[in-house]
Amino acid sequence: MDALFKSEAGELVVAIPESGIDMAWLAQPLAELGLTTGGSFTKLRVESPATWRWSSFDAAFLARLLRQLEAPGHRIALEGLPRELEKLLALALGGTPAVAPEIARQPGLRERVGLGALSATDSVRAFLALLGEVVRLLPRFIAGRAKMRRAELVEVLAESSSRALAIVAVTNLLMGAILAFVGAVQLKTFGAGIYVANLVGIASARELTPILTAIVLAGRTGASFAARIATMQGNEEVDALTALRVSAVEFLVLPRVVALSLLMPLLYIYGCAFALLGGLAVAIPILDLSATAYAAQTQQAVNAAQFAIGGLKALVFGALVALIGCHYGLRAPRSAAGVGAATTSAVVISIVGIIALDAVFAVCANALKV
Amino acid sequence: MISIENVSVGYGPHPVQSAVSAQIGEGEIFAIVGDSGSGKSTLLRAMIGLMPAQAGRILFDGVTLEERAGNGTPPFGVLFQNGALWTSMTTLENVMLPMDLHGHPPRAARPALARFKLALVGLGDAEDRYPASLSGGMRKRAALARALALEPSVLFLDEPSAGLDPLASRRLDELVLSLRDGLGITVVLVTHELESLYRIADRMIFLDGDAHRPVALGAPAELAESAESRKVREFLSRVTP
Question: Which long-range contacts (C-beta less than 8 Å, at least 24 apart) are formed by A358-363?
């Protein structure tokens, strides 16, 4: 390759090759291409072949070169450039300082951890404030004085109930069947196959149905709450409420929390029925049990306390999923990306929260010996 | 009627605008003008209580918004930049919702009053339509009807012409003028549309984004001739400098 740069008495000459500027040169240090910046140039002359048809690559390369050569108050005269390209370069360099601004410093690991912790603390504080506000507004709701639309409540109830029935049924049915299958294989070897009914009954009623149903609702309804409210933030719909001196928590969050808290225990009972059915469907053919014997064993194993604990968990998980969905919706940045981020965070944090709360329930139940 | 007293607004420790002071009279159309990022909408958000002022006070008939009773009816209606209509409701429901939330006028009178507000803005035949099915100009007008729902004495308009074609923008300006004349309300608008400014604003304040303070207050035509700030004169010039 012929030399790209030549210097002649304060003048830098760029000899454009026949093929024009190579795209790869845009990312290559100019020193590697043969530019020596020792002298202070006053003129840049471009020597180009007659057939040269300049493109954006040539313009970008020359702009980069000029940016490197020019200093504040020191402009470089141009020669040998087509008039259009000269205009384009003037436009590209017009608002650009000769010295590139300092690139924002990237925070280090410790700083990132610290900032993350501060952000998490801020989010937890906001979540607790939201919880407190909902609790404070609950008596107004019960008294029928809350500023909200009944239609909104009905819509949330429909969204969280009838439209979620199929998925709750399928997941619990399969979960009961899997439990029964795993239990049957193990218990059969000890001649204790009948206890599959205990396993499926207690595990479903007490632990798995509330968790599974809550996770399904977190992915479905919680995500929908976050996306809906985040979109409303972006469209200034929440601002329109606030400007009317109506609390967004009262209008948007309260009906959702109440609806999901009321629905979850009902969905839990519904899910339990399907989990037991799933267990029954597997246990009968594998263990050669009658449906009556299986049902009687289940009835004996699962007492009212198991259902009470499961029902209570369902209620709390319902409130948690709704609160987390609304929390992330209200805190979402006002952009399409913000809606996506809010939805993802709502689902992930809901699932983590459900499992963490379940652990708290387990500790409390153990302490209370129930 | 509206008194802005030495107000500073912004995000974080540094105010975007400080020492903003103005008196806005009853029935006046007052424009907040400035270069991009100068804090026009931030000032408007502080005026309608969406964010606190970092310093100073904003008074409506001598009292701040905080001093008014808790969740009482606001003295103003707001037209947000993109309308901010509640998308799950029809235009009629959008206009009725503020009435429902504040419990007045009596329930039986609300539909008729909401229809009247929609008719005022020329949307009498669109009461059952959802915001998604309305054009940009219709959405703005529906939002204007909603802003009028609680019989406000002040109307705040944030970039009312944004996203509208010149004809729709002119119609909206004419509507604002008619509403001011018909209802006697005060209008505070944020705008950067020169035509709109000259057409409807009685007075304006110019917020300088570089100086972080207002640099001019007065009638647009007068300021175009005699403002001390060159930036203001250039901004208000109908010819590109």
Answer: A358/A207, A358/A210, A358/A211, A358/A313, A361/A309, A361/A312, A361/A313, A361/A316
DSSP B151: -
Cα(A77)–Cα(A43) distance, rounded to whole angstroms? 5
- Residue B63 to residue B1: CA distance in whole angstroms: 10
For A289-322, the pLDDT digits (tens) are 899 999 999 999 999 999 999 999 999 999 999 9
Residue-wise pLDDT for A45-73, tens only, equals: 888 888 888 888 888 888 888 888 877 66
Judge: B86–A239 Cβ closer than 8 Å, yes or no: no
Across chain A, mean pLDDT equals 88
| Residues of chain B found within 8 Å of residue A240, distances taken between Cβ atoms | 78, 80, 84-86, 146
Say yes or no to pLDDT of A239 above 60.
Answer: yes
C-beta atoms of B97 and A149 within 8 A: yes
First to last CA, chain A: 84
pLDDT tens for each residue of B29-59:
999 999 888 999 999 999 999 999 999 999 9
Alpha carbons B11 and B46: distance in angstroms, whole number = 11
In the block, tokens 């057409």 appear at: B199
Token couple for A163: 């439209």
CA pair distance A88, A59, nearest whole angstrom? 8
The 8 Å CB, 24+ separation contacts for A289-292 are A289/A193, A289/A194
Where do the domains of chain A lie?
A: 5-92, 120-368
pLDDT at position A38 over 90: no
Residue A105 pLDDT > 80, yes or no?
no
* pLDDT tens-place string over residues B86-104: 998 999 999 999 999 998 8
> Count of H helices and E strands in chain A?
14, 4
* Probe site for chain A from B47, B58, B97, B104 (most A CB atoms < 10 A): B97
Rounded to two decimals, the pTM is: 0.80
- B32 pairs with which residues across the strands? B190, B205
Nearest-by-Cβ selection for A235 from B82, B98, B150: B82
Chain B nearest-CA residue for A250: B101
CB-based contact B87 A243, cutoff 8 Å: no
Token output for B79: 């037209």
Disruptive mutation site among A150, A233, A237, A335 for chain B (greatest number of B CBs within 10 Å): A237
Q: Give the one of A155, A236, A251 whose C-beta lies nearest to B84's C-beta.
A: A236
Q: What are phi and psi of A188, to 5 degrees?
A: -60, -35
Q: Taking CB atoms and an 8 Å cutoff, what residues of chain A touch B80?
A: 236, 239-240
Each residue of A360-370: pLDDT tens digit? 999 999 998 87
Beta strands (DSSP E) in chain B are 2-9, 17-24, 29-34, 55-60, 76-79, 154-158, 186-190, 203-208, 213-218
Q: Do A247 and B71 touch (CB under 8 A)?
A: yes
Across the interface, whether the CB atoms of B74 and A243 are under 8 A apart is answered yes
Size (chain B), residues: 241
Report the alpha-carbon distance of residue A257 to residue A252 in Å, rounded: 9
Q: How far is A159 from chain B (nearest CA, A)?
A: 14
Q: Which residue has the higher pLDDT, A100 or A47?
A: A47
